[in-house]
Design a protein that fits this description.
The chain has two domains: 307 residues, Rossmann fold; 56 residues, Alpha-Beta Plaits (2-Layer Sandwich). It is 28% helix and 18% strand. The chain has twelve helices and 15 strands. The strands form five sheets. It has a seven-stranded mixed sheet with strand order 3-2-6-13-14-1-15, with helices on both faces. Strand 10 and strand 11 form a beta hairpin.
Length: 373
Amino acid sequence: MGKTSGSTVFFSDLRAKAKKDLLGKIGKLLERVGLKEKVRKNFLVAVKIHFGERGNTAFVRPVFVRPVVDRIRKHGGKPFLTDTNTLYVGSRGDSVNHYGNAIENGFGYAAVGAPVIIAGGLRGNRSVGVPVNLTHYREVEIATEIADADALVGITHFKGHEMSGFGGTLKNFGMGAASRQGKLSMHSTASPFVKSGQCSGCQSCLQWCAYGALRMGDAKKAEIDSAVCTGCGACLPTCPEGAIRIIWDSGIQQMQERMAEYAYGAINPVRDRAVFINFLMNITPLCDCYPFSDAPIVQDIGIAASVDPVALDQASVDLVNGQPGNRDSALTVNLAPGEDKFRGVAPDIDWSVQLSHAEKIGLGERSYRLVRI
């Protein structure tokens, strides 16, 4: 993508010194991206973040969230940290457990200066229908507390992802702002299956399905009941033999396009009151939804911010791909600077689909101008 035209993406590396610490750089990024103009007195500001599954260690640390909260308060806003409940088994499947998980991972009020409010109700089924009139949806179901906010600030841990290639701002607001109904709808085209010849019958996958779709068949091989499966994909990386597969072409393409349309539904109503930050640190091969974090695939890079979520994610991809790969990680190919690190981890996933569709529907543009601060 072009680097001299298009939307502006502000970028800070991770170098620091006594009078120019990293927390201060976050504040500078927020100034440059125009937070002051986005937040007005008494605005309820949803700070959309991923709190990390219990056992995960790669999510954005609370110490980096505090300067964002402080800046929102400085400009008169009332910030709250939020995320929606998950489809799969884990510590964030309902709001009670999700809140407890957030506190255990360090997001208490004393640390971040803002309350945690889990969006979408106790079980994730409270939502607002937002008209979008796009390719896959006429209307999308956005979690109530996010849809009702006066302004949005996205804080995203940029990393690899087992179904979308990478997880950035588009995923944070697409999958991450949707109600349970919306999540089910987005995943409905991407149901996995078991390649029985590779299944060893170890049963380790069974515990990962919240819906009972995984079971042992007569041949003592795992099977997936497609009528019950939601397509959430939580089981994909759990098989030690790699026997759980998915039809990557049309199913994954549609999932990414639907995710982009949900991001549009979450962001577009407050487009002039939204800013987004990607943390390019601990760039792991998988999502923060797992109770572990594998080694980063490249070194830590920096922090990027923009009012354009598409340009921000495109710039983040380019920054990652411009790095040499970490040989002591899940990345075993495409290690040279300039080679595609996300296709190196997940060669069957074309991550560009989400960016292309988001640009097509008017959520932003892939061309950008990178401004270093």
